[in-house]
Design a protein that fits this description.
Order of helices and strands: HEEH
Distance between the termini: 36 Å
Number of helices: 2
Structural class: mainly alpha
Largest sheet: 2 strands, antiparallel
Strand order of the largest sheet: 1-2
Number of strands: 2
Helix content: 40-55%
C-alpha cells in the first residue's frame, strides 16, 4: 500500500473525528445568511452547518483534483521505435 494513501486516509479520519466532536458540542441553532443566493436566513443546528460546509469542501477538493491522469508520450511512439 502506498504511504501517501495511508497518510491521506488517516488525515481524512482525523478531520471526520473533529467534525463529529464539533457536532456533538455545538447543538445550538445557527443563523446563516447569504443574501445573493438565499432569500431567507437558514436557521439550523450547528452540527448541520458544520457538516454542510465540510461536504462543500470535500466536493470542491474532489472536483479540483479529478481528471489528473497520466499523459502518454507525444505521437504515441517510444524512443525504441525510432
Amino acid at each position: 500500500m502506498n504511504a501517501k494513501l495511508i497518510f491521506k486516509t488517516i488525515f481524512l479520519i482525523v478531520i471526520l473525528l473533529l467534525l463529529v466532536v464539533m457536532g456533538m458540542h455545538n447543538t445550538s441553532t445557527v443563523v446563516f445568511k447569504l443574501p445573493p443566493f438565499l432569500p431567507k436566513p437558514v436557521d439550523l443546528p450547528g452540527a448541520y452547518m458544520y457538516f454542510a460546509f465540510f461536504a462543500v469542501g470535500v466536493l470542491t477538493g474532489t472536483i479540483l483534483t479529478a481528471g489528473g491522469g497520466k499523459k502518454g508520450s507525444s505521437g504515441g511512439k517510444s524512443k525504441s521505435d525510432k
